[in-house]
Design goal:
Blueprint: H1 5-10, H2 17-39, H3 47-58, H4 63-74, E1 82-89, E2 95-102, H5 105-117, E3 122-124, E4 133-142, H6 150-160, E5 164-167, E6 171-176, H7 181-190, E7 197-204, E8 208-209, H8 215-226, E9 231-236, E10 238-239
Parallel strand pairs: 8-10
Antiparallel strand pairs: 1-2, 1-3, 2-9, 4-6, 4-7, 5-6
Helix pairs in contact: 2-3, 2-4, 5-8
Pfam family, one: Transcrip_reg
Subcellular location: Cytoplasm
Family: Belongs to the TACO1 family.
């Protein structure tokens, strides 16, 4: 659930994929429930819900799961989740930003603190880390089977109103101002493009290389945070080492 595909590509979280997928669906269900409770279950009249439903579809979440979350919101469930943000540091001053939806702030705060400090990090006060990041709209388009080169994609992206395009052998990554997210999404979809990721994310202004001797510990920190049921997103200012082509 972190904001950048590089995290997913670089580190080898290929085991227990079904369990990971189930946890992702559980977290998206919580977002769907909250969005529907706050603005209604019609995505055409609830932009926040439309955004979460886009995320659900990009994650290949079954329609039955989506329906259950919306039915729960419509059925009078009184569960209340609060949006909370935690900030901390990893090795070498790497910023760590954690977004959570929780029905028990004390529990979540304690769990996040343990996950960070147990892996050599430190907690930080509000604003100490968040200033390092900018909120952006973020889309990923898989290049496999796509008969579009980088120049053509750049033209389409700029015409749609996006800010930036980053290209790799496997995918196109598109960044946009948050206020333009919906317009860019709709414009690219109208041209027949399909997204493997479509979300609002936090992008670090600068990245910090992870010390080689701290790489495993830092990965374990991120895993511990993302494994927490209350944690929706984990963003870092880490510069990950290049993926080993042999893996």
């Amino acid at each position: 659930m972190s904001g950048h595909s590089k995290w997913h590509n670089i580190q080898g979280r290929k085991n227990a994929q079904d369990a990971k997928r189930g946890k992702i669906f559980q977290k998206i269900s919580r977002e769907l429930f909250m969005a529907a409770k706050q603005g209604g279950s019609d995505p055409d009249n609830n932009p926040s819900l439309r955004l979460v439903m886009d995320k659900a579809r990009a994650a290949n979440m079954p329609k039955d799961n989506i329906k259950r979350a919306l039915d729960k919101a419509e059925g009078g469930d009184t569960t209340q989740y609060d949006e909370v943000q935690y900030e901390g540091y990893g090795p070498a001053g790497i910023g760590v930003l954690v977004e959570a939806l929780t029905d028990n702030k004390n529990r979540t705060s304690s769990d996040v603190r343990v996950a960070i400090t147990r892996h050599g990090g430190t907690m930080a006060g509000a604003g100490a880390v968040s200033y390092m990041f900018n909120r952006k709209g973020y889309f990923v388009i898989d290049r496999e089977g796509l008969d579009v080169d980088e120049d053509q994609m750049l033209e389409a992206v700029l015409e749609a109103g996006a800010e930036d395009l980053q290209t790799s052998d496997d995918e196109f990554e598109i960044y946009t101002d948050p206020k333009d997210f919906a317009a860019v999404r709709d414009a690219l979809e109208s041209q027949g493009f399909h997204f493997t990721t479509s979300e609002l994310t936090m992008v670090p202004e600068n990245t910090v290389p992870i010390p080689e001797d701290k790489l495993e510990t830092f990965q374990n920190m991120i895993d511990a945070l993302e494994d927490n049921d209350d944690v929706q997103n984990v963003y870092t200012s880490a510069k990950w080492p290049d993926e080993d082509p042999a893996n």
